[in-house]
């Protein structure tokens, strides 16, 4: 799996061995798994890695600081859909092996939020046209 992540990270790069060092394939894979299992966003992942010794050790960051969330975002975005599917399958298989899930049903959490919506009227549409044209 790490080799598949390494291929995704170096895909399309002319000289992958040169340049600024980024996240290693192990760090990308383990950070993605941790983020998915814990249901964290990028900010929570960045903030918790330096403070939680177990998470830092699991992700191979140890004492390294994560200064920005864009490093994670760039690393995760370079992964292909096939790699993400393989990672998700491994996580589900691990949960089935541990007896946490049976792997038969997919549970999705959705939240509906009420918001104020301004329904367009003829006057507001005309005003929008006037405002855009006069720019």
Please tag this protein with its features.
mainly alpha; 7 helices; 0% strand
Characterize this entry briefly.
The chain is mainly alpha-helical. It is 57% helix and 0% strand. Helix 1 packs across helix 2.
Describe this structure in words.
57% of the residues lie in helices and 0% in strands. With 135 residues, the chain is an all-alpha fold. Helix 1 crosses helix 2. The radius of gyration is 21 Å and the shape is extended.
Indicate the structural class: mainly alpha
What series of H and E elements makes up the topology? HHHHHHH
- Over the alpha carbons, how many angstroms does the gyration radius reach? 21 Å
Strand element count: 0
List the helices and strands and how they pair.
Elements: H1 2-10, H2 25-38, H3 42-51, H4 53-58, H5 70-77, H6 81-98, H7 122-133
Helix pairs in contact: 1-2
């Amino acid at each position: 799996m790490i080799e598949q992540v390494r291929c995704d990270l170096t895909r399309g790069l002319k000289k992958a061995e040169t340049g600024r060092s980024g996240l290693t394939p192990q760090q990308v894979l383990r950070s993605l798994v941790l983020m998915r299992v814990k249901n964290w966003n990028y900010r929570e992942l960045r903030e918790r890695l330096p403070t939680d010794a177990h998470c830092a050790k699991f992700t191979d960051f140890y004492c390294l600081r994560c200064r920005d969330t864009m490093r994670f975002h760039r690393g995760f975005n370079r992964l292909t859909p096939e790699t993400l599917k393989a990672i998700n399958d491994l996580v589900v298989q691990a949960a089935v092996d541990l007896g946490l899930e049976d792997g038969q049903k997919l549970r999705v959490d959705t939240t509906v939020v009420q918001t104020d919506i301004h329904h367009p009227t003829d006057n507001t549409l005309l005003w929008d046209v006037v405002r855009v044209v006069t720019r």
